[in-house]
Amino acid sequence: MNNSVQNLYAIASKRERLIIGLMSGTSMDGLDIALCLCTNSGSETEIKLLNFITIPYQDDFRADVKSIFSRRDADLEKVCLLNELIGIKHAELILEALTTWGINSNEIDIIASHGQTIFHAPKSLHGKKGYPNATLQIGDGDHIAVKTGIITIADFRQKHLAAGGEGAPLAVYGDYLVFSKKDEDRIMLNIGGIANFTFLPGSKDASKVFSTDVGPGNTLMDQFIQLHYPGIYYDKDALKAKSGNLSDNLLKALLNNEFFKIDFPKTTGPELFNLTYLQKAQEQSKTIDLANEDVLATLCHFSAHGIIEAIKRTVKSSSMPKIFMSGGGMHNPLLVTLLKAALPNATFSTTNELEINPDAKEAVLFALLANEALAGNPINFGDREGVPSVCMGKISLPN
């Protein structure tokens, strides 16, 4: 038997596994690296976050990736080159984190790499007859495995697509295993570039669990800031948005899109919600001359509205579930204030209460997915479209 395959079998047979989960989101601020201790699998899964760090990307590397991100006219040679370079860079950052933590690479069982999404194309967005749902994450897993010497599981979203899903969101698979609680309805709300949530019924009935994108989280606000305020990547503490005023006309135009009428689960991305989308909405609403602060205030209301309406559609009673927040948007005080005002019966918290750093949650999710790929079996989520019962990830051996 190949030594790496034999090692893989031994790791899969263990009760506990040390897994590094990686996440690089649409903000491209850096690589989230979460060191997790995963015990057992399936309904008996336990996970402990041992270490977490976000290592910022250098400006030139970030600009390189942004040059092909979410572009229909992306340079194919650049895509090819960055597929390799991102894998190499992520491997270097993993080794840097391990050095910081004083951990030897041979102590790690598995790396779980999400890669870098550069284009997301569900049927609802591309609209091309005869073509399937599609998504593309680059940052080759073989480079990570070879450079670190650690078995790497990557490219998780393709199995989701192959089994009938849209490749996102994948949070439902980890959220159900780790965060479900008997007799307590929960919503795991992640506000990243795109806002999404997982609904976890207190019955723990997997057939009633689902995860869905609901609209923009930070992506439009961040894109607008980066265009108009060079050198600033986001509106820290919503200071600029809080100094502006809501434009009802612009908000109405922003909400005028078929995406908001599609049933759950559904996915979207910056391929739809981008500065071109904003410009068209401003032209439609005759708000081109709106002050930057007013645009930012309205974009914040836009993100809040998508989240609020989606939660109201999910919970058809006055008894609101407990909402656990994660992602960069939870640090936006204006956005959080809007959510709490519109959902007064809901209890808001963060995943800190569940012993998972909310900034680390997505990286932890991919560690969970890798653990299931090795030692678990598909959870039966029923026959609903968009939530296939699968284990995900492709395995890269270091030699």
From TrEMBL:
Q: Which SUPFAM superfamilies match?
A: Actin-like ATPase domain
- Superkingdom of origin organism: Bacteria
Broad class of enzyme this protein falls into = transferase
Pathway it belongs to? Answer: Amino-sugar metabolism; 1,6-anhydro-N-acetylmuramate degradation; Cell wall biogenesis; peptidoglycan recycling
Catalytic activity annotation? 1,6-anhydro-N-acetyl-beta-muramate + ATP + H2O = N-acetyl-D-muramate 6-phosphate + ADP + H(+)
Q: What is its EC number?
A: 2.7.1.170
* UniProt binding sites for ATP: 25-32
Task: For this entry, list what GO says about its biological process.
Answer: 1,6-anhydro-N-acetyl-beta-muramic acid catabolic process; amino sugar metabolic process; peptidoglycan turnover
Keyword ATP-binding on entry: yes
**Does the keyword Nucleus belong to this entry?**
no
Query: Under the GO molecular function aspect, what terms does this record hold?
Result: ATP binding; kinase activity; phosphotransferase activity, alcohol group as acceptor
Which keywords appear in this protein's UniProt record, sorted alphabetically? ATP-binding, Carbohydrate metabolism, Kinase, Nucleotide-binding, Transferase
Q: Which family does it belong to?
A: Belongs to the anhydro-N-acetylmuramic acid kinase family.
Q: Tell me, in a sentence or two, what this protein's role is.
A: Catalyzes the specific phosphorylation of 1,6-anhydro-N-acetylmuramic acid (anhMurNAc) with the simultaneous cleavage of the 1,6-anhydro ring, generating MurNAc-6-P. Is required for the utilization of anhMurNAc either imported from the medium or derived from its own cell wall murein, and thus plays a role in cell wall recycling.
Xref: PANTHER family: ANHYDRO-N-ACETYLMURAMIC ACID KINASE
What protein am I looking at? Anhydro-N-acetylmuramic acid kinase
